[in-house]
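Hey Z.,

So I finally got round to the pyridoxal-5'-phosphate thing we talked about over coffee. Here's the setup:
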Amino acid sequence: MTDPIRPMPGIMDIALYQGGAAHVAGITDAVKLSSNENPFGPSAAAKEAFKRAAESLHRYPPTDHSSLREAIGEVHGLDHSRVICGVGSDEIIHLLCQAYAGPSDEVVFTEHGFLMYRISALAAGATPVSVRERDRTTDVDSILAACGPSTKLVFIANPNNPTGTMIGKGELVRLADGLPEHAILVLDGAYAEYVEGYDGGAGLATVRPNVFMTRTFSKIYGLGGLRIGWGYGPKPIIDVLNRIRGPFNLSVAQLAAAEAAMRDRAHVGWCRDENARLRAWLGEALAEKGIPSDCSTANFILARFADEAEATACDTFLQREGLIVRRVAGYGLPNCLRITIGDESACRRVAHAIGQFKGQS
Ligand SMILES: Cc1ncc(COP(=O)(O)O)c(C=O)c1O
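And the result:
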């Protein structure tokens, strides 16, 4: 007999999201390079604000997030009435799917795109459509070819996770121009701060009625553990998302820490510079050891191995050395390992260990 209690269509097709591993059995001081976290942590001002928030834990948080939205608006030169804040950018992605896609609608993303696009599309009852990339890079022509009357949302992470590649403004404009007018282009800027001079798509989202940008405090701001993200776009879309957002979705501690983090531009700049320096060093060190990678624009490197067996063996070797990186077979890249840019000592340890692995294989 079939169970009379059944979830909505699509829900049972969702494969559970696996976060980056954090522990290796038997090793107490393993270095975690599996979740693209900021090895330097958040700004001291954010930590102070978080501690101060302990004094008002008995109070409900504001529902309109106005103070955080104003800080975001001031720093990025954006109209704060067009900003929405959520429990990580994951929540914003989820709200977009919930509000704009349902049964018989399609949600388009690239073949090595962030896994939450598929999960959120299925959760909304919509059909996920994965589109080929070209050399692990977003291919605008493939996306446009995949769009039709049923397309409601197109998600592009720029820079992309886990490839680290990105496309330029001209290609983004071509994509926005070519989409059906009933489809929203979502530019996921989770790693935008790592790209000097890139606005994450804010400029396009300011002037286009169908372009939306998502951002996060989990990466360069070093607040992944607190769960805060934001979105910016056309006012009508913000108004829709606010109707289905939980009124108290962000706590007093999240709001206070995020605002302080946003205003500490020196910390952001320092982290960006350090990441760029260490990323270049690690990329070259791996190339010298015969491990190629695409030129990354984010805070990780996608190391390519000869085949899946070599990637798996290297992952096992690194774990024994207390280094946790990310297998990305679930992203359609079984021969690759994604390595977060850690601090200098972590980068040197990874390069050294991969050298030892290659030497013995
Ligand atoms: C491309 C991309 N988008 C969004 C997110 C979600 O970030 P969060 O929910 O922590 O803001 C991530 C996290 O890894 C990501 O890689």
